[in-house]
């Protein structure tokens, strides 16, 4: 059984961007989620937070814009938009942990049927663990969106009955955006919202997780 | 969601419900949101709990709200002032409930609500009547008391200037409880003396980022 | 038995000021302790904190200097000195509670032989209780100095074996400045440092607290 | 006590003892006190515990300190970076201890130390390996984990400007851990790009008041 060609990373990012309400305060995790910024509608008024201490972060800095004192959570040079503000780490994380961010978008190794998230550690014995702000975002944001491919390179599903990788947070994921389908994790179970190059029935056959139709 | 700029104080306080917990900024009159309080008096919500450092001065502002009889309970650190006759009368008549909180615990419990801290241990108040009945624990050789967050349904805050995204700056010691209350409420309503264009506040000097602000009115 | 004429409030304030090291960060409680500011040596570099959110507070404001946005903990108009800073209540009390103030000076109803402080409530049934920042200062400052008359108007001592008024803090007072003597509260007991218009022996006779000579 | 202005970084780091817990500001290279770290390397203290968000980049700054072998333990949130080869080598060789702390817990535990909070309950980390063995409690329907303060013997902080009283301002996201670390250490040592006269910083925009600063050096 094979799935048809799914979405590109850019297409996944566009789907996430579509679901972010105008005027939202949003944190985009390092890696793939940063692509979402490119797909926010001009004038949407979405305000980006970076956990190292800034609101209303602008696009990546280039050329003369590069300033070593102004970086994002991935330590890459960024810019400042009008209406920006700077604050220290305890204030930045108070913002995240106090439930003030409307949405955070994170990558993942695995998501469970009940919304558990594993995205910080593969558990490999020689790996150097690093967690950063992932646990704070997963636990604190009003809505947690995850972007990932639905299957690992070896074909195993990453939406699983129970995460086998070390957890980042328990029952924290609200929506899951993958290359072949988007899902909503609800108290009643996992709902398939849309499929891309595959069908609900194909997904039911490939995943070990009960799936509800929208 | 980014802040809404309101045309009037009445519009800014619309929808405050009976029974609401209302955080009110200010230390005495410095930083007190007098116009928002007057709008709340007109708006008519009742059975309120008010959290503020003091319990009103003279006959205006918070004192005027208390005088309407629509405040069930005051949570504060220092109700007794030379000109706090409205509160004093209600309290002596048994018509208002008082929860007295050391000022640092008041500030820290408000901060905890805004910062997602579920509870914290502090030495302040240990061994005093204000810690009676509270859980205690020895930490680092000192008795600590467990304190819980104070969350507001609404915060009424006076700041100096806002931009159109709701970023705020305060002025001198009128800053006091504004920043912690703005972060600790479901809906934060701010009165400012001046509204400036987005980009006109120094990003290094913003005290309350707009993420904490829901409504702004110039008053 | 009677005591000779003791110190005036101003003289007590001068004694306290003498014991504050140059460059100290100090909080002067409302009421009598504010007098200490007048006796700090010019150029001592003592920095005054006011709990409503300011460091390097200046003298009382008069005339055109009066600004309703700039008051002290007693809600009286004050001024700002060069090098001042403003901060919100949680930051101001973090400063107090985190042990960053070198000295606070407080008034008192009673101080016990073990340094318990009672200064916020007489316990009278009709009194409206008010505590403000007293408990935070008593608990948080590196050194807690108390200024009070040694005897109440009815002649009863205010330095007592055990406070009968509701406590502000337990074992927190380091030094006690009164009109007739100054004391140090040490782990070994109460030490008489100096007497004014009275003698060590007279004090021993009037107080129900064991007194050590310096 | 008001801050001392030091002539050299060597003078600023004098007296740091073997076995000290050293807080080091910075997020990657932004806000890292490179000159103070180099002075600490020359100063020679050993058996150190370093608390910092990362565990060093490339071969300079924190990485250079780790390379001396004089750091026993690192407390951080994100040691793994594309250019963290010094730490990686020591860790894989079992020559350095790592306490991994979620970044928000790191910031809040430092703040707790500075603010006199004995311990606090947070939902971050609940149900994950980083909360294993820690006390938990249900609060408001969520599992919270009890976290303790992280206090430093010394903080090494990079700020942008200081005045002669030690008041500090930072620049952009280089602010990061500076303010919380300055408040959390017994001795706070700050390097700045510029020293200005007392009175030249806007009192509304001071981020770290001088009360938290012991020594300042221009570097």
Textual characterization of the structure:
The complex is a heterotetramer, with two copies of chain A (about 210 residues) and two copies of chain B (about 220 residues). Chain A is globular and about 50 Å long. By secondary structure, chain A is α/β, with parallel strands linked by helices. Chain A has four helices and 13 strands. A ten-stranded mixed β-sheet of chain A has the order 4-3-2-1-5-8-10-11-12-13, with helices on both faces. Chain A has a single domain, classed as Glutaconate Coenzyme A-transferase. In chain A, helix 2 (about 90-95) packs parallel to helix 3. Chain B has about 220 residues and is of the alpha/beta class. Chain B has a single domain, classed as 3-Layer(aba) Sandwich (Glutaconate Coenzyme A-transferase), CATH 3.40.1080.10. Helices cover about 20% and strands about 30% of the residues of chain B. Chain B contains six helices and 14 strands. Chain B has an eight-stranded parallel β-sheet with strand order 1-14-12-9-2-3-4-5. A three-stranded antiparallel β-sheet of chain B has the order 6-8-7. A three-stranded mixed β-sheet of chain B has the order 11-10-13, with no helix packed on it. In chain B, strand 7 (about 135-140) and strand 8 form a beta hairpin. In chain B, helix 5 crosses helix 6. Strand 6 (about 120) of chain B pairs antiparallel with strand 6 (about 120) of chain D.
Poorly predicted runs of 5 or more residues of chain B: none
**Rg measurement of chain B, Å:** 17 Å
Uncertain stretches of chain A: none
Q: Would you list the SSEs of chain A in sequence order as H and E? A: HEEEEHEEEHEEEEEHE
Major sheet size, sense and barrel closure of chain A: 10 strands, mixed
Strand content of chain B: 25-35%
The termini of chain B sit apart by: 23 Å
CATH superfamily of chain A: Glutaconate Coenzyme A-transferase
Rounded mean pLDDT score of chain B: 97
* Biggest β-sheet: strands ordered side by side in the sheet of chain B: 1-14-12-9-2-3-4-5
What number of structural domains do the residues of chain A give?
1
- Radius of gyration of chain A from the CA trace? 17 Å
What is the level 1 CATH name of chain B?
Answer: Alpha Beta
- Following the backbone from N to C, one meets helices and strands of chain B in this order, namely EHEHEHEHEHEEEEEEHEEE
């Amino acid at each position: 059984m094979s799935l048809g060609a799914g979405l590109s990373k850019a297409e996944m990012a566009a789907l996430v961007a579509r679901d972010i309400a105008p005027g939202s305060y949003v944190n985009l995790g390092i890696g793939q989620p940063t692509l979402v910024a490119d797909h926010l509608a001009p004038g949407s008024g979405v305000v980006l937070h970076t956990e190292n201490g800034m609101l209303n972060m602008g696009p990546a800095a280039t050329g003369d814009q590069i300033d070593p004192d102004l970086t994002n959570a991935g330590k890459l040079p960024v810019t400042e938009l009008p209406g920006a503000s700077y604050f220290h780490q305890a204030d930045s994380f108070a913002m995240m942990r106090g439930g003030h961010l409307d949405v955070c978008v994170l990558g993942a190794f695995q998501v469970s049927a009940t919304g558990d998230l594993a995205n910080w550690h593969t558990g490999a014995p020689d790996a150097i663990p690093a967690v950063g702000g992932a646990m704070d975002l997963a636990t604190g944001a009003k809505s947690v969106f995850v972007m990932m491919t639905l299957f690992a390179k070896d074909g195993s599903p990453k939406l699983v009955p129970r995460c086998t990788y070390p957890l980042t947070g328990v029952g924290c994921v609200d929506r899951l955006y993958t290359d072949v389908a988007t899902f909503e994790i609800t108290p009643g179970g996992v709902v398939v919202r849309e499929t891309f190059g595959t069908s609900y029935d194909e997904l039911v056959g490939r995943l070990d997780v009960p799936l509800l139709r929208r | 969601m980014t802040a809404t700029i309101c045309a009037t104080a009445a519009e800014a306080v619309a929808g405050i419900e009976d029974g609401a917990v209302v955080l009110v900024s200010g230390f005495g009159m410095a930083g007190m949101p007098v116009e928002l309080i007057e709008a709340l008096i007109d708006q008519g919500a009742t059975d309120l709990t008010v959290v503020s450092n003091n319990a009103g001065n003279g006959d205006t502002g918070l004192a005027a709200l208390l005088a309407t009889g629509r405040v069930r309970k005051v949570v504060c650190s220092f109700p007794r002032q030379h000109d706090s006759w409205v509160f004093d009368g209600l309290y002596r008549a048994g018509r208002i409930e008082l929860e007295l909180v050391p000022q640092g615990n008041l500030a820290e419990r408000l901060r905890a609500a805004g910062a997602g801290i579920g509870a914290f241990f502090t030495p302040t108040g240990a061994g005093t009547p204000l810690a009676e009945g509270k859980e205690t624990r020895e930490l680092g050789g000192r008795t600590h008391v467990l304190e819980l967050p104070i969350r507001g349904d609404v915060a009424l805050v006076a700041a100096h200037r806002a931009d159109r995204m709701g970023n705020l700056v305060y002025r001198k010691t009128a800053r006091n409880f504004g920043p912690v209350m703005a972060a600790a409420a479901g809906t934060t309503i701010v009165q400012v003396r001046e509204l400036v264009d987005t980009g006109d506040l120094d990003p290094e000097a913003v005290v309350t980022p707009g993420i904490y602000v829901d409504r702004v009115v110039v008053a």
